[in-house]
Design a protein that fits this description.
The chain is mainly alpha-helical. It contains 8 helices and 2 strands; from the N terminus they run H-H-H-H-H-E-E-H-H-H. It has a two-stranded antiparallel ribbon with strand order 1-2. Helix 3 (59-67) crosses helix 4. It is extended, with a radius of gyration of 23 Å.
Length: 215
Amino acid sequence: MLGELYPLVDPENPENQVQALLEGRAELPQRWRDDTEVQQWVQNLQQKDIDEIDLTVTSDDFVQYFSRRKEGTASSPSDRHYGHMKVIARMEDSVVRDTILRVAATAVAVKRPLDRWLRCTQVMLDKGKDVYINNLRIIQLLEADLNFMLGSVWSKQLNRAAARADLFNTSQYTLPGKTCNSAVLKKVLFFDLLRQTQQAGSIVDFDAKAAYMTV
């Protein structure tokens, strides 16, 4: 069904409505204007109002981040190991630390990743279920300074801004003020209510299986 609407977002189509979709003013074909599913699709494509994300990282952020990391943590092929970063974090003179921060912050601000950020090491780990290949977990080992920037800007700043703007789905529980136990408790209470009221019901769990099984 949505294949017929692909011209709206096709980058090769000179008459695409990408910007109009982001701004919520796209003109859909007449037959789709009253379709609930299409309306939800269009609504989810709209650009969300969110505070400007602060890309500033400080020497204190660097020290706090790497002081908590294990020295033996594996990193990517450049041989800039976490042990190096931990030593730099403990140095009294911050000149090396400040240089690393300035280079990394500039790369993020101008949207030009460092060449070594474009490479990673993919490792397959046993999930402890069995020896079959579909039970292997695939992880990517990134550069230590890239992990730091992603942690500071993405995990901290962006998530906080999204939470303030109430942009997270209500099913998301990895948020301030929520715990993973809350999701489990809600599921148990839901089943208890179904049994007590003798009603039929169902729960759908979305497991990110492809994140581990597909490269």
